[in-house]
Queue: 4 jobs
Job 1
Amino acid sequence: MSEDCIFCQIVAGDIPGRTVYEDDTVLAFLDANPLSPGHTLVIPKAHHERLNDTPADVAGAVMSTLYELVPAVESAVDAPASTVAFNNGEEAGQEVPHVHGHIVPRFEDDGGRPIHALVTDRPELSDAELDAIESDIVAEQA
């Protein structure tokens, strides 16, 4: 628990939230500044700043909850689709340093864009550079 974290304060009940799901590990609530009707955040109750800092079992519980909630959120607001995403670190746009997955219901002509529209200056990588990145990622897992 982090005293400075708004999400930890919601978990503790110090700040009200519109809870849509709760168990011993995970809390899900409506975003106070929604991108669309039904925009829901799914967080671990324990404070972890990034996915990289989150124990595998807790990350799995968050993902399982996202999996279960996506159809419920879409149905509740009559959305034909949703964007499910994490901003993992400040440079990625994470505004609250507590792991949180977003369920953003999407509607036809909502002005939203696909994930590939996040970055406008895409790198031009050669096959050799892609091969090196592939090897580095595999090596990091060893």
Job 2
Amino acid sequence: MDLQSRKIEFVQEFLKLQSEEAISRLEKLLRIEKKWDKNRLEPMTVQEFNARIEKSMADAKSGRLTEVSDLLEEIEKWN
């Protein structure tokens, strides 16, 4: 099945949904996908990669880090 046919089938199934919760989840997923498209990752050059590593190492030495527990707490707030 080609992409256009899949999209049409998806929209038809979406229109049959009666669950507000399911629609909300699909809306959330769509927002995430749209944001992902805007922030597509581009390949880095070796020089960019090495510069990022050096910056990260300097940040670590300077204490500019986020503890895993703090990060997990922040992620919980995203939902």
Job 3
Amino acid sequence: MTRKVTKLQLATLEQEREQVLNELNHLRDDLKAEFELEDIDDAAPDLIERDKIQALIFALERRVESINHAIKQAQEIGYGVCENCGNQIEPERLEIFPETTLCINCKRESERKARSYSNGLRQSW
């Protein structure tokens, strides 16, 4: 059931990665400028802005990791193949999330397990 990754599919993933990396670099430059222009009197609003930028940077770094993982998976088992169950990932899902490596059913199950684990941790406190 494996599908080879096509040049177009790989190019789509690489283009997505490039866009995210560009945005990441832009945010890092913004964050650097925030630190360089810091004025003690305006520190509180700047802290909030810096926290927002840092959260965006963290989210984009995770996205780059996901894209890199998807590229690796596509080259190893094929693009659009669920790494968990081996079924084809829905084309609509790939269009929205080109970096996904899980079909919708496996993603739901993964999220359910994560919530269950998280709830178990909270209850043990």
Job 4
Amino acid sequence: MAKKILLIDDNRLTREINGSLLERAGYKTVSAGDGRQGLKELEEEKIDLIILDLVMPDIDGFEFLNLYKKNSLTQHIPVIVLTIRDSPQEIERAKRLGAEACLIKHKMRPQALLDSVRIILGE
């Protein structure tokens, strides 16, 4: 059975591109346009991995990490942060809040995302 990945990003095109990449690699994807919708998807779907943007309206990535870690039903799900922010302080903050990996959108090749997903999912 294919692993299911939740893509949380307010940029629809980013969700579509990454979703297509992951689906071609054999994963199933679910998308959310912000942190609030992402939390709702976690309640409705069995998710194996989360790919999370930090910069979003309403509930941003940092707040999402705080909230999902407080829920015993979701806190075990690994998170890859995929963001435009490349400040070392923000990357460190995301990791302190539980992100397994942090990738910078404008510096990342698509293969790096797939490699990170496979490593974190133990494949």
